[in-house]
Amino acid sequence: MGVPVAIFSESMPMVVQHSFEVNGQDGIEIVTLRNDGIIEFYQSGCDKLKQEFRFINKGNFTKKSNEYWIERAAAAFFNIATFAPRLEPFGQWADIIQKSKRDIKLGEPFYPDFGIQIIIDKIVSREESKLFISIEQK
Q1: CA distances from 133 to 10, 13, 108 (A)
Q2: Is residue 4 situated within a structural domain?
Q3: Is residue 10 part of a domain?
Q4: Tens-digit pLDDT profile for the chain (138 aa)?
Q5: Dist. CA 106–CA 122, nearest whole Å
Q6: What is the span of the domain harbouring residue 132?
Q7: CA nearest neighbour of 118 among 34, 87, 26, 99
Q8: Residue 2 CA to chain centroid, in angstroms?
Q9: pTM beyond 0.90, yes or no
Q10: Which of 134, 62, 129 is nearest to 97 (CA)?
Q11: Is the CB of residue 38 less than 8 Å from the CB of residue 31?
C-alpha cells in the first residue's frame, strides 16, 4: 500500500482549510468545510488498510436517534463524493451504508461481502457531535 496520501485539498470548493501529516504508514488529514463542519481523516496500515473518518459539527444533536446517525454516515459519504471526481467512489460506500442500514448497529462492526469491516459510531454533547466511520480490511 505504501505511504498515505492526501485525498482532500484546498482547491476543492467546499474546503476552506486543509492540513495533512504523515508519520510512517499513518496519515492524518484535517479539513474545515465552508459549512463550518470539520472532517478528520486517519489512514493506517500497509498490508491491511484502515481508514477512519470523524465528522465534527457544532450544535446539539443529543436527541437524534441511532437511525439518524446511520443516515448521516451515508449522507457524509455522498457529500464527499461531490468534492472532486477522484472522490466519487465514496458514493459507493454511501450506497453500501444505505442498503445495509437496517442491519447496522452503532458501535458494532458490520461486514459487506468483500472482506471489509465498517463501524459507525457517534459521540454527542449539547455543543457538538462527532460521527465516526471506520473502514478496515479484514
Answers
A1: 23, 23, 11
A2: no
A3: no
A4: 578 899 999 999 999 999 999 998 899 999 999 999 999 999 998 778 899 999 999 999 999 999 999 999 999 999 999 999 999 999 999 999 999 999 999 999 999 878 899 999 999 999 999 999 999 988
A5: 8
A6: 15-137
A7: 99
A8: 21
A9: yes
A10: 134
A11: yes
